[in-house]
Specification:
This protein is of the alpha+beta class and about 100 residues long. It has a domain of about 70 residues. Helices cover about 15% and strands about 40% of the residues. It is built from 2 helices and 6 strands; from the N terminus they run H-E-E-E-E-H-E-E. The strands form 2 sheets. It has a 4-stranded antiparallel sheet with strand order 1-2-3-4, with helices on one face. The protein has a two-stranded antiparallel ribbon with strand order 5-6. The longest helix has 12 residues. The model has no long low-confidence stretch (mean pLDDT about 95).
Length: about 100
């Protein structure tokens, strides 16, 4: 399976996850890992012209681009564990009981 992603698809997915309008999204992809059936993306996102921002994780598969996490804190386990993101990206997550646990 040949997978890839387009900038416009990632912008739409980031806008959906963060609530930032598509024309105000500023992002960078810091790491991309290609697997057999998906591509994992890690990067940063902010509103154009603003300081700061958030980290994001996204998965690209046959269904398109989906941002599963965008934030500054510890992600929910449900946002990271199903997609097999590397432990180096997030070695802890918050479980369904609100506890921070090792992945």
């Amino acid at each position: 399976m040949l997978l890839g992603w387009r900038k416009s698809d990632l912008i739409a997915a980031l806008s959906e996850k963060t609530g930032i309008p598509e024309d105000e999204i500023h992002f960078s992809v810091g790491e991309q890992i290609k697997k057999e059936d998906k591509i994992l993306l890690r990067g940063g996102v902010s509103r154009e012209g603003e300081m700061g921002g958030a980290a994001f994780f996204a998965v690209v598969d046959e269904n398109g681009v989906k941002v599963t996490y965008a934030g500054q804190g510890v992600p929910l386990c449900s946002e990271v564990n199903p997609h097999d993101y590397p432990l180096s990206w997030a070695d802890y997550c918050v479980d369904e009981n609100g506890n921070t646990v090792p992945r």
